[in-house]
Write the structure tokens for this entry.
Amino acid sequence: MGTVVVAADVDPLMGRSRFRGRGLRAMVGWRLVTLLPVLVAVSAALFAAAAVSPFDPLVGYLGARYETTSVSDRTMLTRQLGLDASWYQLYGRWIGDLLGGDLGVSRGFGQPVSTILAQRIPWTMLLVAVAMGIAIAVALGAGVWAGMHRGGPVDRLVTGSCVIMQGLPPFVVSLAAIALFAVGLGWLPAAGLTDAGAEVGVGQVARHLVLPAAALAVSQVPWLLLAVRESVSGNRGEDFVVGAVTRGIDSATITRGHILPTSLAPFVTILGARLPEVVVGAVLVEEIFSWPGIAGAFVRSAQDLDMALLAVLTVGTTCAVMLGSLLADVAVVLLDPRVRADG
């Protein structure tokens, strides 16, 4: 897999040309080439693991009717649904359908997988976009201030809070938010997309989005903020900053024009590395707040071994994380002239 290598002694002009040229293309090309084998391996491993799972997919399909269904009827249903085939036969059928543009039908939801994705993915994207927008804004604002005033009271307060919050998983933050703002103060709804019986509208959705988005954002802020703080604090002592100070440039201009741009590369690196955690956090937050995103479908498909839906969601999530990580690495290469793309 392609890597990003720091080369502090590279001339900025030469380095910038190299980043946008052969090295960057090689890195992107290599990462895209390795994407397909990874997705094949992940999907095959999923089907193989499902074959040895103690869970019976027929239980998820029949639900409460499972206990009242006779053994002969269970056997007949297993054969009709194709559940008696080996895992590699099931996998081969799934690959064939996928290559033909057919995502299959979810047994648990009784709907085409494409319909489920179309209904739920937009809500997950809304939640993640708002949460990460909040997290990035807070991390940049507070992180730059803390880095520029390292050792001050604000810095100690911010870093201390981040250290504490780093140990809190998203579900703890979510439950605490519900207990305080929904149950205790009654300011915000605890779950759902709208109030019971209400129409889906901007006002209703925005009000119900506040707590889940804030909970997901809080779970990501500490890592991003501390990365910005450390980078800004370290760049304050660099020669280019000292030179700007001696030339009489005001501190606000130095921060915006010199320190912040060079501090963005480590921030983007951390952001890319946190993508799997963001996915996991979104799943937990959506489940706790009953947000109608893709997480509920993910959990239910895993419980029921609904392979048509579970395989698409697993492969799609893996692909999204890998492509997001690639975009983060490309951004780092373009942002920082000291960084060299190694394909």
The longest strand covers residues 3-6. Residues 280 and 302 are 14 Å apart (CA to CA).
